Amino acid sequence: MRVLSLFDWIACWYEALIRAWIKVDAYYASEIDKYAIQIAQKNHPDIIQLWDVKNIEGGGRLSNIDLVIWGSPCQWFSRAGKMLNFNDPRSKLFFEFVRIIREVKPKYFLLENVKMKKEWQDIISRELWVEPIEINSSLVSAQSRRRLYRTNISNVSLPKDKWILLNNIKQTEHSPLISYVNWELRIRQATKQWYIVAEEWDGVDLSYPQSKTRRGRVIKWKSNTVTTNGEVYICDKILRKLTPIECERLQTLPDNYTEWVSDTQRYKMLGNGRTVDVIAHIFKNLS
Question: Which CATH superfamily is domain 2-156+275-283 in?
């Protein structure tokens, strides 16, 4: 399989191909973040880096590409982010993907993105001639992460629920943020009583603690989508931050996959990464 990965980030796609037992003959990656490239190359030294997506053209060594993959940073269209539209220069990079698809003419393509306004979803569907399938990473991991997948790979369905919960991915070592004994942890929510009580093994996102609707959520026995801030959860009667290894497990990556950069960068890399087992589930339909 000859692969071209656009916005490759930390090569989660490569991990998914391996997990789906797909032989990789050549893997070309477009990425400009130096820390993401460092992690990708440490784990997969054979990756051929092409840098900026705007400089990629079909033909030459990109002839006979079997699979083109694309996953832009989710904040561009995310309801939890700035919700930029196609007039924003960063969002316009989607059309670089469309251009490259038309130039390279791969056998297969796969695009991952966040849920967004229907008018923007319709633009993407119209350009690619495929409707999305929504898959939540909670089916294969301990995080709730809803994403839209557009592909011409046949017979893509929802993965079976593995019932993986936060207590299944915990590390024994931890640094407490707040003692949880003998008091009730209330998280601001848009409910009748204005809050929800977080209990043992619940995931809590405190990125926007004063917001009623934007983050600040509690998810029962799961983590919220991994963000660059890192999440917290209640474990052994304390409120603590998820460790980088636990965040790797949320994305179904191997332990210490991102260990060569600082913890700050690790959280960022994992927050913008992919859930490997979801992608692998899709790739298993490749012929």
Answer: Vaccinia Virus protein VP39 (3.40.50.150)
